[in-house]
Amino acid sequence: MKHHYDTVIIGSGLAGLRAAAEASEHGSVAVLTKLYPTRSHSTAAQGGIGAALGNEEPDSPEWHFYDTAKGSDFLGDQDAIEVMCEDAIRTIVELEHLGVPFSRTSEGKIAQRRFGGHTRDFGKAAVRRACYSADRTGHAILFALFEQSELQGVNFFPEFHVLDIVIENERCLGVIALEISSGEIHTFSAKATLIASGGYGKVFRTTSNAYASTGDCLSILFNAGIPLEDMEFFQFHPTGLYGPGILITEGARGEGGILINAKGERFMERYAPAIKDLAPRDMVSRAVMTEVREGRGINGRDYVYLDLRQVPEEVIKERLPEISTFCKIYLGIDPSGKPIPVLPTAHYAMGGIPTDVDGRVLKDERGSVIHGLYAAGEAACVSVHGANRLGCNSLLDTVVFGRRAGMAINSDLRNTEKGSIPQSMIDKAGDEIDSLKNRTGDEQAGTVRNELQSAMTDKCSVFRTEQDLSDLAGKINELKEKSKKIELKDKGKIFNTELLEAIELDHLINLAGAITHSALQRRESRGAHFREDFSERDDRKWLKHTFVFKTDDRLEFKYKPVTITQFQPEERKY
Amino acid sequence: MKTCTFNIKRFDPEKASTPRWAKFSVEMEQTERLLDGLIKIKDNMDGTLTFRRSCAHGICGSCAVKINGKNGLACQTLIKDMPDTITLEPLEAYPVIKDLVVDMSPFFEKNDKVMPYLVNDETPPDRERLQSPEDQHKILQSITCIMCGSCTSSCPGYWANKDYLGPSALLKAYRFIFDTRDNASGERLEKIIHNNGLWRCRSIYNCVEVCPKEIDITGHLSKLKRLAVKKKLLERK
Amino acid sequence: MKYKWHTGSIAWIIHRVSGILLLLYIFLHLYVLSNLKDPQKFESIMKAMDNPFVKIGEAGLLFLVIAHSLNGIRLTLLDIGTPTKYQKLLFRAAAIIGGIIFLIGAWPIMGGGY
User: Fold this and answer.
1) B113 touches chain A (CB under 8 A)
2) What's the rounded mean pLDDT across residues B58-76?
3) At residue B182, does pLDDT exceed 90?
4) What is the CB neighbour count within 10 angstroms for residue A157?
């Protein structure tokens, strides 16, 4: 079936929905999602969305700007960071007007809490900057944006799996997608295509990410010759629930929770004397792993405790109900009576599709754009998060840059003619599905996927070495070969999730390669990328963004300088 | 470790016109989720087994199924709380697409009928609209709904009458009617006071029994009923 | 597999079934009363009432009235704002109170005396 829209948006999380609301004011909009809109992983965001509202104590966008730049280990582009922090207050007010049910202060204003790396007065002490709706902030915002975009007449296509993004002569013509329920191929021709498909945490075994977070669109674009930026920077959230890796919000520490090791010691005092447990995530994750490696994990095992026992019970009940429920359901622990076992969990991709501050996708490190192609949210790399994202900046990023991409689409639409998707591309997508279904061999998708995820978690997480990474690169090649021998049992058309998982696995392997090789290239330690063999930050050589290109199955690296406007790189201490 | 028998009601419209039952024996840890079991089956035993899943920790609402005769999320049900034989079926009252996957569109369509969005035509202030914590608490439970469909599919009222809005949509109406920032409450209330709306709730409490977010749905609906009665009495005066 | 029964749904099905049976009984009752004009016929109907099966039926009627009215009170209490967490407790209380009333009432019906 063939569809025609002015704008097609892939992904119905915060970035996609905010862009949809904007773009639907000037043209027809289709939003594709492989889930239902309300199932998008934005819904799992817990702790808050950052803005210097100053509702609880004095704050300023400039401090927010500084914190974000410093949090990024000075790899964030400061022009973009400034745009985000300056727009933050307006963004939150707008969300509130759209109906987001924020938690409130006694005066009735939006309540705010402390979050990692957010400080007052350029690093003096932690500040209350994260606006929240208990510990369900993402869920609250996602629902409000979904409700408003339905009202605006956005057309939703739930359970459509993107097979290809059509780019011809440096222009994006639209999307080819599979309707999961029928197995039919649909095409969506559009003047503008926005990728807002979220992250790809499922390359790792222990992750807070959803099964759907497989980075399909990034991988499709990567194969089409579009570079990926800063892929080596993947955030490990220090407090994943031990075992399933479910996220326990940083808000838990923002409300007074502390991390303790086997000796009962509040070890963050040693690593970040000024803001302790509210240090940025990369530092806390490294601290947790260091404690574990040096034998101070609880009972000598690979986890530490997140202790909420000193947090008043009514605070937990009121502001952290969701994570308390997780602890009760999955570990049988009541956090007000017992400490929570936690370990770092793969959480957020700083890297992604390179864009300018208006969401236009860049085709090279020099800043040339692909016409009609946009990206926003976790899928994109603007880059505001640089080498490490601060907590509560990702929700802000999605809404600010989702809106900006929508506005850019509106202004670009006027000078764009609609193209049409060539039949050959549609046939190719169909052929690829057939060839996947007809593949023979003795491998199973699940086994290969588990091997990949384990290898990534073991060799490419908080601490990295040359040896591990090159072993991993070899392993990924091996798995790529194995994946060609996966035989599908389900040959049907209707709701063939085995087929979808096989497609997703190919994308995961593709992205794992990009991450690993980008990490191998960067011989320094910055933010979330820590090389034990190059443990210092090296601004002279490496204050630059990695752009990895895929050409004929080979990877090529180019670099783009970091934009520094207001804050010169300094030693990162907290 | 224990060996669990997964007894799953399966249906493949491309192969048969009626459902069949399939049994799988799976080695499970006590702390694992039911969803982990389904994934093990799909990965290692039968790739054709079809079910929905995404977040795996009870916040996206994808994996609602009927577990031993009662709706629930597969990702929020642990093996330790289950008998050795686990019977899984698709959600009741929705058309089955394949195996445990049902067509959720009737569910979402009901939601669209209750004006599920905040309406406030007044010029907004420069900053946020104020709302006291007490007022925010009135909608606190209702905003945690993840729209998994467990409630509506467990409701005998809905089984008997597919035109009934169902608990989830009515709860959505509540969420906006009781939001102090909304000023279309009257209009919204009219959309649910009819025979296929609020009055079809017979206080059976099946929805409360199954809600994975432990929302007191019937209690919220009772509040709506009282509001509706009050409104109609006042109109008569 | 049948959907699992819970306290709420059990109370609901009892309420429904007892409601319908009571409705049917009303017609029976009206039929009996309609014979009031004919003393002879009325007398013979009254004699038939001594039949033990009819006695059991009368006890059953008492059960239906108690079940329906007490659950009606339970639902009314819940509708006017009794918290949901008490719905099961209210059902159990109704069952116990109803059981006692039934025993007290059924004893004379079945021919006993106080």
Assistant:
1) no
2) 97
3) yes
4) 21
Place of tokens 């817990």: A46
Q: Which two tokens stand for residue B104?
A: 């959720």
Tell me the CB-side half-sphere exposure of residue A134, using CA atoms within 13 A.
23
Question: Which CATH code for domain A423-535?
Answer: 1.20.58.100
Contact A95, A399 (CB under 8 A): yes
The reply to whether B185 and B144 lie within a common domain is yes
| Phi–psi pair at B88, nearest 5 degrees | -120, 130
Residue A302: half-sphere exposure toward Cβ, Cα within 13 Å: 12
Q: How many CB pairs below 8 Å do chains A and B form together?
A: 167
Tokens of A240: 């994943």
- Chain B residues touching C6 at Cβ < 8 A: 205-206, 209
| Cβ pair A5, A29 in contact under 8 A | yes
Question: How many Å apart are CA B169 and CA B161, to the nearest integer?
Answer: 15
**pLDDT, tens digit (0-9, with 9 covering 90-100), for A128-174:** 999 999 999 999 999 999 999 989 999 999 999 999 999 999 999 99
Domain that holds residue B51: 2-102
Q: Which of B69, B222, B226 sits opposite C3 (nearest CB)?
A: B69
A342 near A305, Cβ under 8 Å?
yes
Size of interface B-C (CB pairs under 8 A): 58
> Is the whole-model pTM more than 0.80?
yes
Active-site annotation holder among A253, A281, A403, A531: A281
**Displacement of CA A160 from its chain's centroid (Å):** 21
ipTM score above 0.85: yes
* B236 pLDDT higher than 90: no
Q: Which of B102, B119, B147 is the last residue of a domain?
A: B102
Residue C2 lies in a domain: no
Q: What is the pLDDT of residues A264-278, one digit of tens each?
A: 999 999 999 999 999
Q: How many domains does chain B have?
A: 2
Q: What is the pLDDT of residues A107-128, one digit of tens each?
A: 999 999 999 999 999 999 999 9
**Which is more confidently placed, A416 or A438?**
A438
**A205 is a catalytic site residue:** no
Examine the domain organization and report whether B118 and B219 are in the same domain.
Answer: yes
Q: Which domain holds residue C69?
A: 7-109
Q: Please answer whether residues A80 and A163 qualify as being in contact, where contact means their C-beta atoms are separated by less than 8 angstroms.
A: no
B129 C-beta neighbours (distance < 10 Å), count: 18
In the structure encoding, which two tokens stand for residue A420, read together?
Answer: 């049409």
Based on the domain organization, do B156 and B56 belong to the same domain?
no
Q: In this structure, what token pair is assigned to residue A443?
A: 């491998």
Same domain, B16 and B97: yes
Give yes or no for B137 touching A (CB within 8 A): no
Longest CA pairwise span in chain A (Å): 66
- Tell me if C80 is assigned to some domain: yes
The CATH code that applies to domain A241-346 is 3.90.700.10
Q: Do B54 and B171 fall within a single domain?
A: no
Structure tokens at B2: 């224990």
Q: DSSP letter at B23?
A: E
CATH number of the domain within which C81 lies:
1.20.1300.10
